[in-house]
UniProtKB/TrEMBL annotation:
The keyword Transcription applies. Gene3D superfamilies: 1.10.1740.10, 1.20.140.160. Keywords: Cytoplasm, DNA-binding, Sigma factor, Transcription, Transcription regulation. It comes from Chromobacterium amazonense. PANTHER family: RNA POLYMERASE SIGMA FACTOR FLIA, SIGMA FACTOR F FLAGELLAR. GO terms for molecular function: DNA binding; DNA-directed RNA polymerase activity; sigma factor activity. A motif (Interaction with polymerase core subunit RpoC) lies at residues 47-50. The gene is fliA. HAMAP family: Sigma70_FliA. Its main location: cytoplasm. This is RNA polymerase sigma factor FliA. It is found in: Cytoplasm. One of its GO terms (biological process) is DNA-templated transcription initiation.
């Protein structure tokens, strides 16, 4: 296992039911495969699977059938959480990709305020002072951009270091908890409804239907790399709309 992937601080509860962990190994691989499609090439599938297995083991120890939840549902949450916790601890999205992402968000926000509508790709490219092809390449490099960045909860210092990434604070805001906030969820739903129709379709196929990029490309009749660009752009549009909340 890659030494950069490490887990600590697990609290094991007394098992209340016998769980065949090995039987749920395919679930870990499935969730890791879905997540890896959203991440840069520097993140390896095997590392995600190993971290997910730790989450699965933790889930088997903590599962309580008296809560009325199926183990697969309970385990899926723990597996995803284990993977996301590890990714959040690592600087897995290159700093330049973050800068590019924020430049795109700022351009989209500015154009939306000026035009009162969602800007076209060509308009965003022009605002950034580049050709459409160059802008689309930038979108592809932003693969792995998420709706909530950990840095949203703490500014980089003057030396470009993020103090939040280096200090564990159990009382600090958690991006995952933020996504669970009802008010944010309502704003997010409203923002998605304002996206261009194609962007809405990409988001629905990716997050609701859990299709991978290749499968979405087949539905839309475009390449996998083009779907990656559209996904990055949809996320940038959402972040631009939700910038006041973020």
């Amino acid at each position: 296992m890659n030494p950069s992937f490490r887990r600590s601080g697990y609290v094991a509860a007394a098992p209340s039911v016998e769980i065949d962990v090995e039987a749920y190994t395919p679930l870990v691989r499935k969730l890791a495969s879905i997540m890896i499609a959203r991440l840069p090439a520097s993140v390896e599938l095997g590392d995600l699977i190993q971290v997910g297995m730790i989450g699965l083991i933790e889930a088997s120890r903590q599962f309580d059938p008296a809560q009325g939840v199926m183990f697969e549902t309970f385990a899926s949450q723990r597996i995803r959480g284990a993977m996301l916790d590890e990714l959040r601890r690592e600087d897995w999205l290159p700093r330049q990709a973050r800068r590019n992402s924020r430049q795109i968000e700022e351009a989209i926000s500015k154009l939306e305020q000026q035009q009162g509508r969602a800007p076209l790709e060509s308009e965003i490219a022009a605002e950034l002072g580049m050709e459409l092809e160059q802008y689309q390449e930038m979108l592809g490099e932003c693969k792995g951009t998420t709706l909530l960045h950990f840095e949203d909860f703490g500014n980089d210092d003057e030396h470009g270091h993020n103090p939040v990434a280096n200090v564990a604070d159990d009382d600090s805001p958690d991006p995952l908890a933020a996504l669970s906030d009802d008010s944010f969820r309502r704003q997010l739903i409203s923002a998605i409804k304002l996206l261009p129709e194609r962007d809405q379709l990409v988001m629905a196929l990716y997050y609701e239907q859990e299709l991978n990029l290749k499968e979405i490309g087949a539905v839309l009749g475009v390449t996998e790399s083009r779907v990656c660009q559209l996904h990055s752009q949809a996320i940038a549009r959402l972040r631009a709309k939700l910038k006041d909340w973020l």
